[in-house]
Design a protein that fits this description.
14 helices, globular, Rossmann fold, Arc Repressor Mutant, subunit A, 321 residues, 9 strands
Length: 321
């Protein structure tokens, strides 16, 4: 396929990744697998859903070899593009040079607000600046699964008065209660792209003008609110454009294996897993799913090294399905 005139160049693939950060992980996995094996692969082998790989075929990133599977036209150029993109992301996350600690967290916030998160100084500083902003600034964290979004939200949920909810679990009446009656200072929403389309009217309204309207026993209440929304989305392209435009967006890349090991080890030890067990789980999960949720579940279930190795082995089998 290297002679294919339509094959993406290193520069065109780099431009694609910059424009579609959510596709960085499947592109990385596909390119590395093809470069290592040198032959077409099935979707099960790369660990991505067929619709994701089909999208990459439509976008011209991958090719399709009839009956054999997906392929990469120029794997070396693709590897260089992926490496350049990931280096750009790491540099962006390390900026600005000033430490996030120079921005004070809001009063009452725990001193280790982001204590479980390794690196990501740029996003940490942006969030602290949003918390300290004179007018409410709403923040949306995007990026592939297992990219520290949930860790950031868990930290923010520890702010005084914060309410943490999942996007598909918030009803219109419940949202208006948080905004109008309880007037929570921070609304933390995970998987906001799962918000039901007919449920986000109140959210759109208050994010636009910092007011909430509600009809109560025939009387319309219209009150000013001072609430900041911190949300995360694995697939922001599923969100309404009107909602997306109301957020300051921060893209988080997936952890490298070394970063994941440090994060998972610290996270597990902090929650009571023994040092050697935490180290084992962190190293082994980093070579499989690199998902902190998997490390957390195994750390919770495993009582011995044998337990941990058994659970990790099962996790590896599931990852290959």
């Amino acid at each position: 396929m290297t002679d294919d005139p339509a094959a993406p160049t290193e520069e065109s693939l780099l431009a694609y990744l910059r424009a579609h950060p959510g596709m960085a992980r499947p592109v990385h996995r596909a390119v590395v697998l093809y470069a290592r094996r040198g032959r077409p692969f099935a979707w099960r082998e790369v660990g991505e859903w067929p619709r994701t790989l089909d999208r990459l075929v439509v976008d011209g990133v991958l090719g399709w070899v009839d009956r054999l599977g997906y392929a990469v036209a120029d794997p070396q150029a693709a590897l260089r593009a992926v490496a350049r993109y990931e280096a750009e992301v790491r540099r962006a996350q390390a900026e600005p040079a000033a430490s996030a600690a120079e921005v004070a967290p809001p009063p009452g916030a725990p001193p280790d607000l982001f204590g479980d998160i390794v690196g990501f100084d740029g996003p940490k500083r942006q969030i602290l600046l949003a918390l300290a902003a004179r007018d409410p600034v709403h923040v949306l964290l995007t990026g592939p699964p297992a990219s520290a979004k949930s860790l950031f939200l868990e930290g923010l949920a520890r702010l005084p008065g914060a309410v943490y909810r999942f996007g598909d679990g918030i009803t219109r009446s419940g949202l208006r209660r948080y905004l109008l009656e309880e007037k929570v200072p921070y609304l933390v929403i995970d998987e906001i792209e799962k918000f039901k389309e007919d449920e986000d009217t109140a959210l759109l309204e208050f994010m636009e003008r910092q007011r909430v309207s509600m009809l109560v026993t025939g009387v319309n209440r219209d009150e000013a609110v001072n609430i900041r929304v911190f949300a995360a989305a694995n697939k922001p392209d599923r969100m309404r454009e009107e909602l997306l435009s109301r957020f300051h967006k921060i893209m988080l890349p997936a952890y490298t294996p070394e970063e994941f090991q440090r994060v998972a080890y610290r996270y597990l030890v902090k929650r009571g897993t023994s040092d050697p067990l935490a180290r084992l789980i962190a190293i082994e999960v980093s070579g499989r799913t690199r998902d902190l949720r998997d490390a957390r579940r195994i750390g919770s279930m495993a009582r011995t090294e044998a337990d941990a190795r058994f659970l990790i082995d099962q996790l590896g089998k599931e990852a290959r399905l």
